[in-house]
Amino acid sequence: MLKATDRKIYDLIKKEQKRQAESIRLIPSENYVSKSVLEATGSILTNKYSEGYSRKRYYEGQEYIDQIEEEAVARAKKLFRADHVNVQPYSGSPANLAVYFALLKPSEKIMGMSLPHGGHLTHGWKVSATAKFFNAVQYAVDKKTNLLDYDEILEIAKREKPQIIVAGATAYPRKIDFKKFKEIADEVGAYFLADIAHISGLVAAGLHQSPVPYADVVTTTTHKSLRGPRGAMIMCKEKHAKLIDKAVFPGLQGGPHDNTTAAIAVALKEADTSKFKNYAKQIIKNAQALAKELLNYNFDLVTGGTDNHLILIDMTNKNLSGKQMSSALIKAGIECNANTVPYDKRSPFDPSGIRIGTPAITTLGMKEKEMKQIAFWMNEVSENVNNERVLKRIKNEVKKLCGKYEMPGLK
Ligand SMILES: *Cc1c(COP(=O)(O)O)cnc(C)c1O
């Protein structure tokens, strides 16, 4: 249909589909959703308006929408053992904003991990609304180990007395001790927000510590390792439920995206299976296998390896910038992003590192053997960043490997 009515957009979608099918997608926040998730996302639910919450809507005709949202909430509660869940945030950033809006007054203090050390924009980074409308103070990782230093975090918290402490990251390859964060927050009388956007699939599978028992509020995107549609959820203790719900609607948003809500429900059902647990296990196995191979090629991995789905590589010892490496990799059909490394001496626009991850390639079905091959190619690329002929040859080899896997979502 689209093909007939809008050839231009149709062709661009098809081209992007081919690109996704033929490249090794190592961006750790990306994935391939199932056909079922895609079907719910693209359904007629996109036609509906349903401001409010189940049984308390501002528009008529909600008998099915209410059931869909209730089902999504019930599945999230079960999977994450949460008291209360809001599935309406449009994405991870608005979800975090809603939490601050719910629990803080303007100009009260947020304490989060700084962006160049692995935190997210919405954890109080200076250019973000979260630092403009609130006061923000940041913690970093330890200079030597590049690990979270809980003593230091406690010290900053005692000095700065934030109203909320945020744990969670977009570029931290190790486990996070949410219990310790809770103790720190308690010691200074702060709320504790855990943002598990990247790792929620690993948490759902029971492979990483769940912050749900400890945190006042837990936010997560639904589209990263959880493998659902673009969206987010806020989970919280019952005592915060009213404030959180009011902050999402009518505080920050209007009508929820009901098609997304349905797709979240579908993804949550998929995530509550032993098949997904095995998938999550393989994500970590693959990341660790890839890390091991990369170390063999003398790549400088931040913290020396990974406990989760992602690897941060400092390219300095290869005499390359992150951007040089990421743009050479994409020419070879391998997709990642340039990323700052802790205490980066280069600028955020041209940082020293690259960030890679295994959720998407693990969904395809790749295993340890393929990690070996990917590390081999990455090493070749690093030695040939300006050799278009070599990069092209690798791209063809990559395409051939990807051809062995069926891209999910199509059938
Ligand atoms: C991805 C991410 C977000 C934001 O998600 P968007 O959907 O891109 O707005 C928030 N926090 C963390 C830790 C993330 O990794």
Describe the structure.
The chain is α/β, with parallel strands linked by helices and 411 residues long. It folds into two domains: 38-271, 3-Layer(aba) Sandwich (Aspartate Aminotransferase, domain 2); 282-402, Aspartate Aminotransferase, domain 1 (Alpha-Beta Complex). 45% of the residues lie in helices and 13% in strands. The protein contains 16 helices and 15 strands. The chain has helices spanning 2-5, 7-22, 35-41, 63-80, 92-103, 129-132, 150-160, 178-188, 200-204, 241-252, 258-271, 274-296, 322-331, 359-364, 368-383, 388-402, and strands spanning 24-25, 52-53, 56-57, 84-86, 109-113, 135-139, 164-167, 191-195, 217-221, 232-236, 300-301, 310-314, 334-335, 337-339, 353-357. It has a seven-stranded mixed sheet with strand order 4-10-9-8-7-5-6, sandwiched between helices. Strands 11-12-15-14 form a four-stranded antiparallel sheet. A two-stranded parallel ribbon has the order 1-13. The longest helix is centred in the C-terminal third of the chain and has 23 residues, at 274-296.
